[in-house]
Every structure is written in C-alpha cells, then in structure tokens.
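Bench notes, afternoon.
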Amino acid sequence: MAHSFSPALVPAHGVGSRGDLPLPFTALVVSALAALLISFVAISTLWREPRLRASDGILLPAAVAAVLDSRWVRVVARLLAAVLTVWTLVALLLGPDSARNPVPHVVYVWLWVGLAFASMLLGPVWRVVNPIRALHAGLLRLARVSPDLAALPYRWGLWPAAVGLGTFTWVELVAEDNTSLGFLRVLISGFIALSLLAAAVFGRAWFEQGDPFEVWSRLLGLLSPLGRRDDGRWVLRTPLHGVNSLRGQRGLVPTVSVMLGGTAYDGFSANLSWATFVQTSSVPSSLLKTATLLAFFAVVAATIWLASAVSVRLAGEPLRRSFAFVSDIAPSLIPIAGGYLVAHYWSLWVYQGQLAWVLLTDPLGTGADLLGTAGLTPDDALIQPTLVATIQAVSIVVGHLLGVLAAHERAITVLERRAAVIGQVPLMVVMIIYTLGGLTILFAP
C-alpha cells in the first residue's frame, strides 16, 4: 500500500511483530519448514496419480446456484459499481486535494486490496463489474456494431497485464505524490483512455487477457471456493482445483512474478533498516526503490525458472523442456501470492476499508454527510496485534502448502511419476526459501 497517506489515518502494515506471536519466531520458522517438508514427503508417497478433476466439487443448492446465475444479481452489481465509479470521479474532479478526499482510498484500498480479497472469496468478480468493460459494451451498442468487433487479433497473452500490474505496483509503492489529485487524474484518465483504445483495437479479448485488474481478479479468483465443474454447475471446491484448471499461458510467469514480488517488496520496504538506507543513500530514492522493486520481480521469475530447469534435468528431460515446464508450474505460485496478500494487507483492508466510508460520505469536502457515515469509527477488533500476527503466519504457511500441492499435481501430470518426484526437489527448495523470506520480512526485527 502507498505510504503517503496521513500517518494519523494509516496503521502500519505489520501491526504484529514476532513478539506478538503465540510462538517464538524461531519456533514458527522451524514449524513452517517442517510442515512443508513433511507435506512434501507425504504427498510424494501417497499422491501417486493426478487427483484433481474438473468434475470434482460439492454441488451448491439449486436456489444458491440460481442466485449466482441470476441476471438481476449481475445487473445490480454493475449498477453499484457504476455508481461508485461516478461518485469517485466526482471526488476526483471536484473534491479537495487533501487527506479528506476518498479517491486514494478507493484506488489503493478498495480497488487494489479489496478486489483481491473479494476475488479470493467469490471468484473473478471484476469481469462482472468492470466499469470500463461496461462502458465499452455500451459504446458498441450505441454504435450498433457487434460486441465481438476487433480491428486486430489479440496475440500478446498476459504480457500487457504483467506490465500493467507492475506499473500499478510501482505507482502504489514508489511514485511520489501518488495520492495527490493531479497525479491521480493523470493516472485514472490515462488508464481509461488506454483501456478503451486497446478494447477498440483488440475487442473483448483485451479485457480477458490484457486488462491488469481483470487478470489480477481472475488469477486470484482461482483460489475461490466457488467454481463450476465441467458440466457448468456451481460447486464448492478446493483452491487447488481452481489453480489446476489454469494451463500455461504466454506471459503467465512474469504476471505471477509481479504479483508475488510486488507484495514481498511492500513488506520489505517497511523494514526500518531499508528505510534508513534509502534516506542516507546518495542514489535518488525513487531510482533506488524502482531498481529494488524490479529486482524483486526478477528474483521471483529467475528462481522459479531456475528451479524448473534443474527439475527437468533431474527428470532426465532436455533443458529446452524447462520453458514449457515453468509455465506449467507457474500457477502453483498463485496460492503463495494469495497468502502474501492476506498477510501483508489484512490490517490495511480491515481498517482503511472502513475508513473509506467516512471519506466517501463527503466527496466534495464540504462537510456533507451524504451516506450518513461521517461519524463512523473503524472497529479495530480484527487488527489486534496477536490476531494479525497469527493471520499473517497462517496465511503464508497455508499459501505455501497449497503451492506445494499444486506443483506436485502438475508435475505428476506432465512428467513420469518417479521423475516428477525427483524433479520436485528444486521446487521444494524454492518454496522453503519463499517461506523463510516471507516470515522473515513480516516478523524479524
């Protein structure tokens, strides 16, 4: 989350410290690594064949499925999203350029963090409520042209989404004055214009694969317990089923590297030693932060590719096979990214998500109370230090355990079983490094 909000309004990410934990830091790390190793040995022994099938899942009651499929539910959701969009644009264009303006909270808290949490709970919700997608569809209807209109075929895969997510991460974590209205006006207007232009050229395929927020929502939505089995019926399923349904796509590795690396950098940048180094360095802080953020992206991409390269060689496959294998394994990073998101942004979302209502009730800064929420006091019951520290630790460990399971399922699907077990050792090492790094960033002094 951007750190340029008023200190009086924004709690620190890490309200928990290792002193808040029910267990000492060393015991937590040892327990987490032991859980990963034991899980790896257990699944290598007991999970001998691919188990995740598209037909799996517990059928939802017909009434619940009818609500989920209801056209009116989607219409209401889109209308609410449209109202919030217009409300936010009014505050952007006419509101005060101060901490009383709700736009930074809507963009950096609700859109970024809230969308991630909603997607992990309900699935790819942004595809349903995306106001720019709705605007594009409305313009096509007004022009009386086919909704499938496209000037050029789309061939870029997820690469534009990776660049867009990386850019937004830079805006959130590095850019100066990123909460000023002038900056946000340029950012938002530029994004809307670019999105409409891309949609005009590539059609609806742009939103499916190129739009950073739709891709962000879709990938994290794979972790949702809600899903459809192969016959189209709604079911409750494990996060592994959603992740396993994703096959290698062009640009998937850089996209998940940005997702995981950006959140890791956010936690790292809150470290006091790093902040002191940035302030005392002769290198301009923005340049130093940008280079470090890019390094985090690159480290995630490099480690997962290196692990894949070693894996295919241990499995007796030619090295060129690693490029396909890394794309096969990349979805296993999504649970880890989801765990990091919950760990890093839980307290921010719980507190700032409530505070946004206080600001939205007065979008023009005139002292109005249009929503009746001016007197709302954010409840801090869910951001008590010990609770937050526990949520952080559990989120990281569970995310990594799911990552191990997802990688194992994919490996035994695409490789011969014995070779798959041996080939997973480098991936396991990477998972351990990620776990140790994540816990250290959060809880070490």
